[in-house]
């Protein structure tokens, strides 16, 4: 490789093509041969006066003709150099030159930068002048005719001349027509009028320099000096070709960590390049971006960019668009923007606003245009940045950046140190360029002295002499000398400003880089390396997990989780992780290598053992050091490029014509000649070529990860390419839907966690919310693609409203008889959609259109009807064609069906996204009590009540009316007769427990055997089953008048195979009657099984508390549900009973516990326990205290309920492990239990105590329904 590079360097005679400072020099302007052509895409009104219209510009010349690795895109460069086409004016207008820049990305991902100096040049072509004069006369005729005719005739008469006049006037205008039009009086004296005999016509011309790196200041100075030489009355020292040739072929890129000086027309220009350990080159003035928008808005904008929202910049000034766009992308280090990046789009490219992908684009704010006039198809996830009005409109629910308050404070301090206000709103005019903006000195002597000063070759005395010389120059005619140039004092001031801007740039960037270092300092520990080689990793990339997101989030501060959980799902983070994984087989990408080296350095100096979740905010400590490196390079240049020199030009070429840019001699500029390279060039060429080679290799390896459309295609406004572009957008949406639904299924079913051996299938609520938010964003972008008629900011909600209006117009009673089943089902779906649309519209008053659309998606997803409702929405083809353009995704039938099919797969899992997101709304519930079939008549004698509890609260006591009997149908089970009550209350969340009781004054006959209780959420359609299987009433069973039941979510939409489990594992429920029936035989049950059940119940509790809080689920189920701790301890105490005759027919553990306490109290009074440790001890006192409190509770919860309360209170207060030894040593135990009973086995009791002691380290909070009525 080295030999090949040496050959390349030697062939160019100065620097290799890839290592030159500039790639192309371009001149754009009016082509006198084609004449005035309308700029079809300018979108301007023919009602405007001709001089205010836009005309098509052309690339007049560009040098060199082409480069192998960076081919010249003529149309794209022309569009970006003159986004608004040609601009005309007269001597009455301001003729200030303007500067702007742009970026263009080649097909291989390499980015180049264009710097454009636009000025006005007098039109000398008689054809162009005649054409403009003709347009004015035609414009006057049209307005004269329209004022004297009817509106209908005026519109028709005005359209024809305008369209014909906008053809190529120079080539098509006949002399007779021109003579006849010349006789029409012009609009002399009108504002903006033009008369060839009176006015001088000027047209815009653009000089452009395209470079591989963003050398903004140096390129701007070079172009300004070039323009100054054109406007100067005196000819430059050399022909302009010499300077252009010099910068194209003889000025190399500065070596990394060094500065370079080269020469413009009137003075030296210095540029610098960061070293390998510094942040990449960023020459765009971040200080200007911060002063325009303010620190708060810039941080908000950066957050939007990091979360890959659609970012649209809006300003009258093209350079402001580039300054903000480049500033934001520079601050992303070490991450890189992966999507559409077009900081400047002209009117022909406004169709890209339809793009259903994340983008960062900028459009010009035209004079008189309003914000509302912009057609923005989807604004749900759009960040709109009005730069001129210092405003950032971020999407709703944007999470704050980690440590945002402290970060804003630190950034504000940096700005204040440089004398800039942090609040923003400062209006600057950075793009107007005057002749004094180029560093021209008044004499060659002073220029040489300045070069010595730049190189640090002047001491204090010499500097003093230099200042005296300058003062003398002022006194001896300084005014005249500074007319076209500037004084030395001004040069010093400009140098200080440039240095100040560079130091501010690097310090602001260092603050953000330090933040990312702090946040992602341990990211390497969570990379999952699952492939043995590169090829296998590439082939399985989509189906593999590359980063352990759950574990990474578990060590982050809680305040950072909302942002980080969404950021981990972005393409830029995914690409960053992919780069880390692929670095095992190829060289690391430069940005990642730099970031990793910073992390290593940070670890060397950071010896603290603080938990990352509680680590305080630390300010950046490298601000001074980084600024000093920049100052060192700018204060003393390291290398000097070859000076411009006279070229081998023909006699007569290169003549100076003041005010006109000359026609350049092409033969000397199209190719490089052999010349002696600077001394440093050889080493520098090798270094940079090696850099570029690695970068090219990396980009080829990463071609699979770049899903963005090539920029060359995006910049092509031809109809054929536009159609292809939107076709690629359609394919991209379909692919994204497939990946998102697959990711949601994998996360929801816990596939990744199981494969990694990290435990049970589960998902945190935070990750679930993040994935659903991504789905909402995808649907909004899909519905926004090609949308041409929209209400509000949400494209999806706009479509739903149009659908609602159309359905309500044709809403009519449907005759069920004679209607086929398929048609009837369509009416059901339609009515269901309308019902839920109206519910969303009325559930809260403060919801925006975007929030309403998200609520609708959440509700449809939870009801498992998202695909069904979207299919119904798309069934109205007439409405679709009315709302959407032909290229819209929703009009691509095949892709649309595949899209819905991918969404249908989400029905295989259960979501509670609506229930858990909209927690403050009111929800209607219906409760149905179902008795055992044979005893359903007994329900007529009871007076039951219920209280439903969920994770968000309880419903309060709700009385069941006696006359509320109804028939209840349950799939795969016999029909039951039940009693129901409906009520509305605040959203209870996921239901957990239900208190069921009868009033104490109901009488002895008020008893019934309850099978279960069903609770319906009338909005989400969720059904909860609370199994009971026990008696309720006095004198039967355990005499309970109140029971606490544990609920189970029944899968909605289950059919005959409803017993089959879905992807979400079922929860435990209340112990059923069948389980209770088995308890009587536990005296003969294997003790190993009982102990195994006990260990399993305790282990479930331990795992519960070791999970993240959002993942834990319901603690009550683990305590009181089937397989819970209460049932396991009940089995333990029932094991080894001698006989149940002591407790009559039914065996209840509570009877033994109660008898044991009475027995011990009696024995203590009789002195039988003299000397025993059972009495007069704190555990014994507490046991008696708790037993008395439970026994005297006003709630009649029965013996089973009392034992359940006994266990729950004991485990909550860490007393259970002390109480069981007391029960084991009780004298009653030996009389009640057989010798082999677990309670009489000391080893088994000690093992039980150890198990219970492991639970003492956890803080257990009981539901209010469990401890109601007991104040302990």
What does this protein structure show overall?
The protein is of the alpha+beta class and 1272 residues long. It is built from 46 helices and 25 strands. Strands 1, 2, 3, 4, 5 and 6 form a 6-stranded antiparallel beta sheet that branches. The model is unreliable at 1-15, 150-189, 434-445, 474-484, 674-707, 751-763, 813-825 and 1053-1066 (pLDDT under 50).
Largest sheet: 6 strands, antiparallel
How large is the share of residues in beta strands? 5-15%
- Residue runs with pLDDT of under 50 for 5 or more positions: 1-15, 150-189, 434-445, 474-484, 674-707, 751-763, 813-825, 1053-1066
The residue fraction in helices comes out at 40-55%
Number of strands: 25
Oligomer class: single chain
| Spatial separation of the terminal alpha carbons | 81 Å
Helix-and-strand structural type: alpha+beta
Mean pLDDT score, rounded? 79
Radius of gyration from the alpha-carbon trace, in angstroms: 40 Å
Shape verdict = elongated
Count helical runs. 46
Overview features:
alpha+beta; elongated; 1272 residues; 6-stranded antiparallel beta sheet; disordered N terminus; 12% strand
Helix-strand blueprint:
Elements: H1 2-12, E1 24-29, E2 58-63, H2 74-81, E3 88-90, E4 98-105, E5 111-122, H3 126-147, H4 151-165, H5 169-172, H6 175-182, E6 201-211, H7 216-231, H8 240-250, E7 259-263, E8 268-272, H9 286-293, H10 295-306, E9 310-315, H11 318-331, E10 340-342, E11 359-364, E12 382-386, E13 391-393, H12 404-417, H13 444-454, H14 460-475, H15 478-481, H16 488-519, H17 534-539, H18 549-554, H19 561-567, H20 571-582, H21 590-605, H22 623-635, E14 639-640, H23 666-669, H24 681-701, H25 711-714, H26 719-748, H27 751-755, H28 765-784, H29 795-809, H30 821-843, H31 849-862, H32 866-873, H33 877-883, H34 893-904, H35 913-917, E15 922-931, E16 944-950, E17 953-954, E18 958-959, E19 965-968, E20 976-986, E21 991-998, E22 1008-1017, E23 1023-1032, E24 1042-1046, E25 1048-1050, H36 1073-1079, H37 1087-1106, H38 1115-1120, H39 1125-1134, H40 1149-1166, H41 1178-1191, H42 1198-1212, H43 1216-1225, H44 1227-1232, H45 1242-1254, H46 1264-1267
Helix pairs in contact: 1-24, 3-4, 9-10, 12-16, 16-22, 19-28, 26-28, 26-34, 30-31, 32-34, 37-39, 37-45, 39-42, 40-42, 41-42, 43-45
């Amino acid at each position: 490789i080295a030999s090949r590079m040496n050959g390349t360097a030697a062939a160019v005679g100065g620097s290799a093509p890839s290592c030159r400072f500039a790639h192309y020099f371009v001149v754009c302007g009016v082509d006198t041969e084609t004449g005035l052509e309308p700029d079809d895409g300018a979108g301007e009104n023919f009602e405007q006066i001709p001089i205010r219209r836009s005309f098509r510009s052309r690339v007049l010349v560009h040098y060199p003709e082409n480069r192998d690795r960076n081919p010249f895109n003529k149309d794209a460069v022309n569009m970006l150099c003159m986004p608004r086409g040609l601009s005309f004016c007269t001597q009455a207008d301001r003729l200030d030159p303007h500067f702007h820049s742009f970026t263009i990305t080649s097909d291989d991902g390499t980015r180049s930068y264009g710097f454009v100096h636009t000025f006005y040049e007098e039109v000398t072509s008689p054809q162009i002048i005649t054409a403009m004069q003709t347009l004015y006369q035609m414009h006057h005729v049209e307005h004269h005719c329209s004022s004297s005719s009817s509106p209908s005739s005026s519109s028709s008469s005005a359209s024809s001349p305008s369209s014909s006049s906008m053809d190529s006037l120079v080539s098509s205008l006949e002399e007779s027509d021109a003579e006849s039009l010349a006789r029409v009086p012009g609009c002399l004296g009108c504002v903006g009028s033009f008369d060839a005999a009176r006015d001088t016509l000027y047209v815009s011309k653009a000089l452009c320099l395209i470079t591989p790196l963003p050398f903004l200041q140096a390129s701007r100075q070079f172009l300004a000096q070039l323009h100054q030489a054109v406007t100067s009355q005196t000819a430059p020292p050399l022909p302009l070709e010499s300077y252009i040739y010099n910068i194209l072929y003889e000025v190399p890129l500065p070596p990394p960590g060094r500065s370079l000086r080269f020469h413009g027309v009137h003075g030296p220009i210095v540029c610098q390049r960061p070293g390998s350990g510094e942040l990449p080159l960023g020459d765009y003035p971040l200080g200007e971006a911060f002063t325009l928008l303010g620190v708060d808005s810039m941080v908000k904008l950066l957050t939007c960019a990091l979360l890959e929202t659609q970012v649209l910049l809006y300003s009258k000034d093209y350079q402001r668009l580039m300054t903000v766009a480049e500033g934001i992308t520079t601050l992303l280090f070490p991450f890189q923007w992966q999507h559409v990046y077009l900081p400047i789009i002209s009117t022909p490219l406004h169709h890209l606003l339809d793009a259903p992908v994340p983008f960062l684009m900028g459009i010009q704010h035209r004079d008189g245009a309003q914000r509302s006039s912009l057609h923005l198809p989807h604004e749900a996830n759009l960040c709109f940045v009005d730069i001129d009005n210092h405003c950032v409109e971020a999407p709703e629910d944007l999470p704050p950046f980690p440590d945002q308050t402290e970060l804003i404070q630190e950034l504000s301090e940096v700005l204040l140190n440089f004398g800039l206000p942090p609040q923003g709103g400062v209006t600057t005019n950075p793009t107007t360029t005057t002749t004094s903006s180029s560093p021209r000195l008044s004499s060659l002597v002073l220029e040489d002295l300045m070069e010595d000063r730049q190189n640090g070759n002047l001491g204090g005395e010499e500097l003093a002499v230099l200042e005296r010389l300058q003062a003398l120059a002022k006194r001896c005619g300084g005014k005249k000398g500074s007319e076209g140039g500037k004084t030395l004092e001004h040069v010093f001031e400009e140098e200080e400003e440039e240095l100040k801007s560079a130091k501010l740039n690097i310090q602001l960037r260092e603050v953000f880089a330090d933040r990312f270092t702090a946040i992602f300092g341990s990211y390497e520990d969570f990379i999952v390396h699952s492939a043995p080689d590169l090829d296998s990793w590439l082939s399985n990339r989509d189906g593999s997990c590359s980063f352990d997101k759950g574990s990474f989030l578990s060590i982050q501060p809680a305040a950072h989780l909302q942002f980080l959980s969404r950021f981990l799902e972005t393409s830029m983070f995914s690409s960053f992780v992919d780069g880390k994984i692929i670095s095992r087989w190829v060289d690391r990408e430069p940005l990642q290598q730099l970031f990793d080296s910073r992390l290593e350095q940070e670890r060397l100096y950071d010896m603290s053992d603080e938990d990352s979740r509680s680590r305080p905010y630390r300010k950046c400590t490298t601000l001074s050091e980084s600024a000093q490196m920049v100052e060192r390079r700018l204060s003393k240049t390291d290398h000097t490029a070859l000076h411009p020199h006279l070229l081998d030009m023909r006699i007569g070429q290169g003549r100076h014509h003041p005010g006109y840019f000359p026609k350049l001699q092409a033969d000397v500029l199209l190719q490089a000649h052999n010349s002696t390279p600077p001394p440093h060039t050889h080493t520098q060429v090798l270094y940079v070529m090696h850099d570029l080679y690695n970068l090219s290799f990396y980009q080829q390896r990463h071609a699979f990860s770049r899903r963005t459309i090539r920029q060359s295609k995006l910049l092509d406004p031809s109809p054929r390419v536009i159609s292809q572009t939107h076709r690629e957008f359609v394919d991209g949406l379909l692919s994204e839907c497939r990946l998102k639904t697959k990711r949601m299924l994998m996360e929801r079913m816990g596939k990744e966690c199981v494969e990694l051996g990290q435990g049970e299938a589960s998902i945190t609520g935070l990750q679930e919310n993040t994935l659903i938010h991504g789905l909402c964003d995808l649907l909004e972008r899909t519905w926004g693609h090609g949308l041409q008629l929209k209400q509000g900011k949400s494209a999806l909600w706009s479509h739903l409203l149009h659908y609602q209006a159309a359905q309500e117009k044709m809403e009519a009673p449907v005759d069920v008889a004679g209607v086929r089943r398929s048609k009837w089902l369509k009416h059901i779906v339609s009515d269901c959609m309308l019902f839920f649309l109206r519910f969303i519209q009325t559930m809260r008053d403060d919801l925006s259109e975007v929030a309403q659309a998200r609520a609708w998606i959440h509700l449809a997803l939870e009801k498992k009807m998202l695909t069904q409702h979207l299919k119904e929405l798309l069934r109205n083809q007439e409405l679709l064609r009315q709302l959407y353009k032909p290229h819209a995704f929703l009009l691509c039938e095949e892709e649309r069906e595949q899209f819905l099919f991918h969404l249908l797969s989400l029905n295989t899992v259960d979501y509670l996204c609506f229930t858990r997101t909209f927690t403050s709304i009111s929800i209607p519930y219906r409760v149905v009590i179902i008795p055992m079939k044979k005893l359903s008549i007994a329900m007529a004698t009871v007076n039951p009540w219920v209280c439903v509890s969920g994770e968000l609260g309880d419903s309060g006591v709700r009385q069941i009316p006696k006359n509320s009997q109804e028939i209840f149908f349950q799939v795969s089970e016999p029909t039951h007769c039940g009693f129901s009550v409906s009520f509305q209350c605040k959203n209870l969340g996921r239901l957990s427990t239900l208190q069921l009781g009868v009033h104490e004054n109901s009488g002895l006959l008020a008893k019934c055997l309850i099978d279960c209780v069903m609770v319906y959420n009338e909005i989400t359609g969720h059904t909860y089953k609370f199994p009971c299987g026990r008696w309720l009433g006095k004198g039967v069973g355990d005499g309970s008048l109140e029971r606490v039941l544990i609920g189970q979510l029944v899968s909605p939409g289950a059919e005959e195979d409803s017993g089959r489990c879905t992807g979400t594992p079922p929860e435990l429920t209340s112990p059923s009657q069948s389980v209770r029936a088995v308890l009587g035989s536990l005296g003969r049950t294997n003790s190993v099984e009982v102990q195994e059940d006990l260990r399993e119940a305790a282990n479930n509790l331990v795992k519960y508390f070791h999970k993240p809080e959002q993942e834990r689920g319901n603690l009550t189920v683990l305590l009181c549900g089937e397989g819970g701790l209460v049932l396991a301890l009940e089995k333990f105490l029932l094991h080894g009973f001698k006989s149940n005759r002591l407790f009559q027919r039914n065996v209840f553990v509570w009877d033994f516990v109660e008898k044991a306490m009475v027995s011990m109290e009696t024995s203590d009074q009789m002195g039988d326990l003299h000397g025993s440790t059972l009495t007069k001890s704190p555990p014994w006192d507490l046991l008696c205290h708790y037993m008395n409190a439970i026994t005297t509770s006003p709630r009649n919860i029965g013996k089973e309920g009392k034992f359940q309360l006994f266990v729950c209170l004991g485990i909550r207060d860490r007393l259970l492990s002390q109480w069981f030894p007391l029960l084991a040593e009780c004298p009653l135990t030996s009389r009640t239990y057989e010798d082999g009973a677990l309670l009489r086995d000391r080893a088994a009791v000690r093992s039980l105590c150890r198990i219970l002691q492991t639970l003492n380290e956890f803080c257990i909070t009981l539901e209010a329904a469990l401890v109601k009525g007991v104040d302990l």
